[in-house]
Amino acid sequence: MSDIIAADQLRLFIERIERLEEEKKAMADDIKDVYAEAKSNGYDTKTMRAIVRLRKMEKHHRDEAEMLLETYKAALGLA
Q1: Model's pTM, two decimal places?
Q2: Is-contact 10 4, C-beta < 8 A?
Q3: Nearest residue to 74 (alpha-carbon basis) of 66, 57, 60
């Protein structure tokens, strides 16, 4: 009996994961469409992606990353 219950539970987990994967794909497609729309309006999507990445970071992590970037740029004569 427990084998049947475990198999049913496993099947339900797999089905939930599959549904979530479908939703994730749909969400990724929506994001791609927004970037395409922004690009068609003259925005640089590479820069937009960088901004999105920065906004996800906590301030102290963002500050640290920017400080390291400036240090590396200075070391290479880019600053």
Answers
A1: 0.75
A2: no
A3: 66
